[in-house]
Amino acid sequence: MSTHGLQVQGISKRYGDTVALADMSFEVHPGELFGFVGSNGAGKTTTMRIALGVLEADEGQVLLGGRPVDLDVRRRIGYMPEERGLYPKMKVGAQLAYIAQLHGLSRAEAADAVHRWTTRLDIAHRVDDTVSALSLGNQQRVQLAAALVHDPEVLVLDEPFSGLDPVAVDVMSHVLVEKCEAGVPVIFSSHQLELVERLCHRVGIVRAGHMQAVGTVDELRDRGTTQLEVHAPGAAPGWADGLPGVRTVGVRDGRTVLELLPGADDQAVLAAALRTGPVHSFAVRQSSLTELFREVVAA
């Protein structure tokens, strides 16, 4: 298995007066799951299509292992588009074998790969059905099999979990983790931010064609504000008002949620809470990726 990483270096793309991408740069390392998140129209799909070589960037380049993406490199990429990219009236098995052979596998190698991946994705019993006869979830499984059937050196997946039931989400998650553990760089976009937070090593947040933030979830948390949750049952409303660098966000499950600006003293907050009576809990609240995403795109 290749240990090549995927490098996106300063790519820009315009459509007339519309800027789709502006100096988009990031890297997906070998054996890394990279989550690519952003609102609709932020530039995720355009970036992925340029990475695959389907679209040409106006500026910048995409490299796999230091080599520009040409026809030979494209054959080594597994791509799963958000929209269905399969022939609806063609049988599943024949279609996957055809795709495998397009990527350079022999007829026998393609047959073995089709059997392996349809079994792994629990669709082996549907290989003689047409794609149009399948549920949307099973069509999504076939689409993933099409991205995997040629044993790619990098995976680029656009909304791979869309429309899947929880069992299918687990199957697909396990497959992506396995490919990652084998050294494959995996990038996928998703609006299911809880899933991205659970699976990904690093996350890139895109807004209006720009990479706004990139890093581990913990690194993204360090960029934002710190929140405290304080359970002081005897405290009157507004008990933290006036503390330097402290803003009351609200009350959640009986606990006061406070936002600390840089330089604020959490021990001063604890002392103020203790002056109101017993303090049952006092803890830093970890922001979810969904909350971090809102902070970044609203900045």
UniProtKB/TrEMBL annotation:
One Pfam family in the UniProt entry: DrrA1-3_C
Record key words, sorted: Antibiotic resistance, ATP-binding, Nucleotide-binding, Transport
Keyword Nucleotidyltransferase: no
Superkingdom: Bacteria
Keyword set includes Repeat: no
The ABC transporter domain, residue ranges: 6-233
Subcellular location: Cell membrane
Mode of membrane association: Peripheral membrane protein
Entry GO MF terms: ATP binding
Similarity comment: family membership: Belongs to the ABC transporter superfamily.
Protein name as catalogued: ATP-binding cassette domain-containing protein
